[in-house]
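Let us practice reading a record.
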Amino acid sequence: MFEIFGIPSTALFGQLLIGLINGSFYALLSLGLAVIFGMLNVINFAHCAQYMMGAFAAFLLLNLTGLGYWGALIVAPILVGIFGIIVERCLLQWLYKLDHLYGLLLTFGLVLIIEGVARNFYGSAGLPYTMPESLQGGQNLGFMFLPNYRAWVIVASLTVCLATWFVIERTRLGAYLRAATENPTLVRAFGINVPLMITLTYGFGVALAAFAGVMAAPIYNVSPQMGSSLIIVVFAVVVIGGMGSIMGAIVTGFGLGIVEGLTKVFFPEASNTVIFVIMAIVLLVRPAGLFGRRA
């Protein structure tokens, strides 16, 4: 063991790992929020409740059907994404021409309903979810011990984030999606079903949150409140990166996770507020966010 700036290397790299883990979830969740806001212009306050639904879906699939982690990683996001599609078709589609406040209030109400139902059936105590055997254990890197599952979470999150960015920014499908948000009438003239694209986009954004929830289940206890502590931080990440910016959500999510981890080492008292201090500074200097475009 050696020291860096008078701090044991194990403590420093351990907090960096925790920061990367948190950053992985910040990036995935803020990515889903950015996709939904950028394509639908809706502030989805229910996003972290849908993240919690992904964890509960994995828990129920394991206990009711015996479907393990790897299967749940595919099935749970699909199920929660279908729930998102139903919400969009039945509720959100009527709010697109109204002020953002209406969508915010509707999705906030959804949070209360979803968390209330989960709390009614399962209480407030956390429920354990077993880590897959293939990812148990870890690697001794000499300067720190790296758990296999934590490494998997970081790699999987980064892969999904970059793949989503590539599809939206570098493919024809992504071009259609961006065009549909700018000029839906023109896109319809080319025979593209714009309402279906909007619905599937919302479902995909919700599925991203559920995917993050499944990955979080073995690390954190599955509980109705597991998303409540994240929602404000994730919104701060989106604001710093730029509302609707895909790359901004990814870079800012991972970056702020690392900053938060380092702050816990050098100045622990500020670890809970450093993200909001950064948000205030960014909004003063660049109101559109680091990667956002000015209106």
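A brief commentary: Strands lie at 3-4, 7-8, 138-140, 145-147.
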